[in-house]
């Protein structure tokens, strides 16, 4: 895999983009993350790899502002998001898209599912203006169609979501996140249990998003996938990041012996 970016340490990457700085978080009596620093720059794809239960999903949920960290900060463009007003924080959340392992589509057409993502992410003023535009016949569907083209489902707009395969449903979920034009996409095991055709479609969509300037973070168990799609790779173990760097270096000459053992399959977890 050709190296696309010069290596920089995580601490040097967190002034711009979306980042977590020294975050810790847990649930009940269980600590999940401990002092994690991680950032995503616009126009790059970062893969987060590691055994199950090490905190990958929790990190993505902190970055998407589902949770407020117990300690540390989540920042957008160098500013602590949780120190902002609720209104400003909501505006930040609208800049972040997240795709879960389960697509969770509505019982509606493919188009309506993708359209709903754009609708719910608008503030009330924009929703009213859009409703008035529709009454005047000015409603545009270009963004919806374009998002479905990216995932290879442009011909399925009027199809019922309930008739889709699992892989197709996941592609619709990706299109729904892409349609409202976020700055960052967070993907939690987006191709888990998908067949090769749907996996390839998702990976191509990730590359399209990156080329458009979006910052993309992907939690994945698939080492080959991480090597194919990522500019950088972060290896997570026991609630911390033990290695972060360009994908080519991390997979060929990891510096942390635990990262090497995990990548080579020697670390049983």
Round the mean pLDDT to the nearest integer and report it.
Answer: 87
Sequence stretches where pLDDT stays below 50 over 5 or more residues: 1-15, 135-140
* Cα Rg: 19 Å
Major sheet strand order? 6-7-8-3-9-10
Distance between the termini: 27 Å
Q: What is the N-to-C succession of helices and strands?
A: EEEHEEHEHHHHEHEHEEHH
Provide a brief overview of the structure.
The chain is an alpha/beta fold and 269 residues long.
Could you describe the 3D structure shown?
The chain is of the alpha/beta class and 269 residues long. The chain contains ten helices and ten strands. It has helices spanning 56-63, 86-93, 110-121, 124-135, 142-150, 166-179, 196-211, 223-229, 247-252, 257-263, and strands at 18-27, 30-40, 45-49, 71-76, 79-80, 96-99, 184-188, 215-219, 232-237, 240-246. The strands form two sheets. Strands 6-7-8-3-9-10 form a six-stranded mixed β-sheet, with helices on both faces. It has a four-stranded antiparallel β-sheet with strand order 2-1-4-5, covered by helices on one side. A hairpin with a 2-residue loop joins strand 4 (71-76) and strand 5.
Task: Please render the helix and strand layout as text.
Elements (H helix, E strand, L loop, with lengths): L17 E10 L2 E11 L4 E5 L6 H8 L7 E6 L2 E2 L5 H8 L2 E4 L10 H12 L2 H12 L6 H9 L15 H14 L4 E5 L7 H16 L3 E5 L3 H7 L2 E6 L2 E7 H6 L4 H7 L6
Parallel strand pairs: 3-8, 3-9, 6-7, 7-8
Antiparallel strand pairs: 1-2, 1-4, 4-5, 9-10
Helix pairs in contact: 3-6, 5-6, 6-7
GO molecular function, one term: ATP binding
Keywords: ATP-binding, Cell membrane, Membrane, Nucleotide-binding, Transport
Protein name: Amino acid ABC transporter ATP-binding protein
């Amino acid at each position: 895999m050709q190296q696309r970016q010069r290596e920089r340490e995580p601490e040097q990457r967190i002034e711009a983009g979306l980042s977590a700085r020294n975050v810790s978080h847990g649930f009940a009596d269980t600590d999940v993350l401990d002092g994690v620093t991680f950032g995503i720059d616009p126009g790059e794809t970062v893969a987060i790899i590691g055994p199950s239960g090490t905190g990958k999903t929790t990190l993505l949920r902190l970055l998407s502002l589902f949770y407020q960290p117990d300690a540390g900060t989540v920042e957008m463009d160098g500013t602590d998001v949780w120190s902002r007003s609720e209104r400003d924080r909501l505006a930040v959340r609208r800049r972040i898209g997240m795709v879960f392992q389960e697509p969770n589509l509505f019982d509606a057409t493919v188009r309506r599912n993708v359209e709903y993502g754009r609708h719910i992410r608008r503030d009330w003023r924009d929703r009213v203006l859009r409703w008035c535009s529709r009454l005047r016949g000015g409603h545009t569907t270009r963004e919806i169609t374009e998002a479905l083209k990216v995932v290879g489902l442009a011909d399925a707009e009027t199809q019922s979501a309930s008739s889709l395969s699992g892989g197709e449903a996941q592609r619709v979920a990706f299109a729904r996140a892409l349609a409202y034009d976020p700055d960052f996409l967070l993907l939690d095991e987006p191709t888990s249990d998908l067949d090769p055709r749907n996996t390839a479609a998702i990976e191509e969509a990730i590359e399209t998003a990156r080329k458009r300037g979006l910052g993309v973070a992907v939690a994945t168990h698939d080492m080959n996938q991480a090597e194919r799609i990522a500019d950088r790779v972060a290896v997570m173990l026991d609630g911390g990041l033990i290695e972060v760097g360009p994908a080519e270096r991390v997979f060929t000459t990891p510096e942390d012996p635990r990262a090497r053992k995990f990548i080579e399959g020697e670390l049983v977890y």
